[in-house]
Design a protein that fits this description.
Number of strands: 29
Shape: globular
Helix content: under 10%
Radius of gyration: 22 Å
Strand content: 35-45%
Structural class: mainly beta
Number of helices: 5
Largest sheet: 7 strands, antiparallel
Distance between the termini: 55 Å
């Protein structure tokens, strides 16, 4: 459309000026292509609109306030589908019936693997997308609806992302308050939200950006830890086409011990959420999808569940991470049910804190166990609609010890918002073979330890 490229250029300049006055510590750009091969979230070739993240491009470090450090991550999107993706943010609409609320929102997250536990450390508010550049890139390929690859088909309209086309927002744009909005306003299953978005706190440089406890990423305090950042898009016509399950990508980063800048390690892992980084680092980790629909013809909602089981000195240690991919109904309770006595102990829980005015409660989930089960839970929706439910683009981690094999237990997840189903089963595999890793030949059973493959 006439006038769009110059407008976006002006916007970029304005953002750069704004960022320069917002205490940005550093921008770190990748020095390679930065994009790995397509993974497509196990969805295969898709039809309809299908926005994905082709590349995580750069990061910005906004410094620390009160022990909390803030970052943002740049994203390069790619429409791998067969139809255009909505990208409208004009206050008067964009023609063809599009409203200003029909554009992507972008979540940014950070994760850590340390001492066998994979945990989410921080999250951002949402960047609201605007003005697609419809750029051609050899690594971004759409399809013609019959599975044949298609390069960028520029629709000639910056309110749409064309088939096989890309659009980039650097870390400065994704961390800008000018296009930021809260997560609580978004129906993540359908990609529906009000626009303009609500305002939030901007009194501190860390507001609305990825916020992490500096001690959690300090390389001196976490010498063996690994870290990843993640981007995640949600947009209405992609979601309603059931193409919202491959909209997250992740990339490993290192943390500088002196200034805490992030540097990329390797390429972006495309179209998979960061929970898959745990399995990539430890192939013994099992990951399963928990899919359901709430009503006939509804959009598929997904939780991703990962589990690690180790055995040492007669005790199993189980670590479970559950990431909400796109479920607006969220989750409020995890139950592990054994068939008999399991001598359960040392239950633990890790969540991630919302901030900058999000209304959701920070209260940790309650842990309760008896001889044959352990559960973690927060309040029901009826008691508190703003309870600390496991919401979209967020991951919680749970762990416990037991004398019984946890691969023989059953696992279920209760949903937070009312509807049917009210709970879903996590389809972890059954008994896993145990591999002893030390003391096996000694004859001393107390020295044996193991891991599952």
């Amino acid at each position: 459309m006439p006038g769009k490229p110059p407008l976006k250029l002006l916007i970029f300049v304005a953002v750069l000026l704004a960022v320069s006055s917002a205490a940005v510590v550093a921008t770190v750009a990748n020095t390679d292509t930065g994009a790995g091969p397509p993974q497509n979230g196990s969805m295969g070739i898709t039809t309809g609109p299908d926005v994905t993240i082709y590349q995580l491009t750069d990061t910005e470090n906004y410094g620390a306030v009160g022990g909390i450090r803030a970052y943002s991550v740049g994203t390069n999107s790619c429409n791998i589908g067969s139809e255009v993706v909505n990208w409208c943010d004009n206050s008067g609409g964009c023609g063809a019936g599009l409203t200003p609320a029909q554009h992507p929102v972008i979540a940014q997250n950070m994760y850590r693997l340390s001492e066998g536990r994979f945990e989410q450390l921080g999250l951002s508010w949402l960047k609201h997308g605007f003005l697609s550049t419809n750029t051609s890139n050899p690594g971004c390929v759409g399809n013609n609806g019959a599975g044949q690859p298609t390069t960028c088909q520029n629709p000639g309209n910056s309110s749409l992302l064309g088939v096989g086309c890309t659009d980039t927002y650097g870390a400065g744009l994704n961390g800008s308050w000018s296009w930021s909005g809260p997560r609580f306003e978004v129906d993540s299953t359908k990609g529906i939200f009000p626009f303009p978005a609500s305002n939030g706190s901007t009194s501190s440089a860390i507001d609305q950006r990825i916020q992490v406890e500096q001690n959690d990423i300090d390389p001196v305090l976490n010498p063996d830890a690994r870290f990843w950042v993640e981007g995640h898009y949600v947009v209405d016509n992609d979601a309603l086409a059931n193409n919202g399950l491959n909209n997250a990508s992740y990339r490993e980063v290192s943390v500088n011990a002196s200034n805490f800048n992030l540097s990329f390690l390797g390429s972006t892992v495309r179209e998979l959420s960061a929970i898959h980084a745990w399995q990539a680092a430890d192939p013994s980790v099992e990951i399963v999808n928990v899919d359901f629909v709430s009503g006939a013809g509804a959009v598929v909602e997904r939780f991703e569940a990962a589990r690690s089981v180790t055995f040492d000195g007669g005790v199993y240690t189980t670590v479970i991470a559950i990431r909400n991919m796109n479920s607006d109904r969220a989750a409020r309770r995890l139950l592990a049910q054994f068939g008999g006595s399991a001598s359960i102990s040392d239950g633990g829980f890790n969540d991630v804190d919302y901030h900058s005015g999000e209304p959701w409660a920070p209260t940790d989930w309650t842990i309760s166990s008896d001889s044959d089960s352990i559960e973690w839970f927060t309040d029901t929706f009826g008691v508190d609609p703003n309870a600390n439910a496991l919401r979209w683009s967020t991951m919680y981690t749970f762990w416990f010890d037991s004398t019984a094999d946890p691969t023989m237990a059953t696992y279920s997840l209760d949903l937070f918002k009312p509807g049917s189903p009210s709970s879903v089963t996590i389809p972890f595999s059954g008994m896993s073979p145990v591999i002893f890793t030390d003391g096996f030949e000694s004859g001393d059973l107390t020295s044996w330890s193991s891991s599952t493959p």
